[in-house]
Amino acid sequence: MARFLSIITALTVAALTATPTDAQVYTDPNKVDADYAIQGEYVGDVEGLDGDTAKFGVQIVAQGDGEFLGVGYPGGLPGQGFVGDKEKIIRVKAQKVDGGLKFQGEDGYGIYKDGAVTIYDNDGQLGGVLKKVERKSKTLGMKPPKGAVVLFDGTTADNFKNGKMTDDNLLMQGVTSKQLFQDHRVHVEFRLPYMPKARGQGRGNSGIYVQGRYEVQMLDSFGLVGAMNECGGIYSVTDCPVNLCLPPLTWQTYDIYYTA
What we know:
It contains no helices and 19 strands. The radius of gyration is 20 Å and the shape is elongated. It folds into 2 domains: 3-23 and 137-258, no CATH class; 34-133, Lipocalin, CATH 2.40.128. It has strands at residues 3-12, 40-47, 53-62, 68-74, 77-78, 81-82, 90-97, 100-104, 108-113, 116-121, 126-133, 149-152, 160-161, 171-172, 176-177, 184-191, 205-210, 214-219, 252-258. The protein is mainly beta. It has an 8-stranded antiparallel β-barrel.
């Protein structure tokens, strides 16, 4: 029978690849730049060119100094309507307009203003309004089942080699469990730093190694494609079918089932 491991309260993942030129590294959601309030997920019903109405999701990714990337998902947000046809994802840089941002696509455009994204066709006809949502993992804060091995619960890092905790009782990166496991399920909660000026692997970047061999990536992949070296991917093994990474500084979870 597989063992259940629980790492509660989670890992605080350091920006391992950050350099002095990266300048902005935020680890506290209460101490961020103004762009952070715009960054996030937006979803709503949009009327298409064929007259049909369908869900449409947008992720706005902050890229530093008031620059933003818009990522559009036909059908809804990843995992909630959008099911992984990466060829259909729309990526556009924002243009600053009066009091907001404009994301110009091939068949229409979106205007961010006052906390919402309004969609228009290229003739200026209203298609729909996308409201901001804050999604949470269904297993966030789950209690360990009976018989589980609790490796970390915010009280001690003694179950790890090189175990270290932050001043606010989070487990720091760079630790290895002292106990070894064969078949198991592991529950991990983690939060990635907000680094708007960094790109790709230069953002908050770490991972969880299973049996010291398979690395499940922990990278700020919000708005990225879901490659093997991004959040949810198994490094050098397989891509993530759907990129479910939430915005940085959001608590996220892994529930990994491993058969030795």
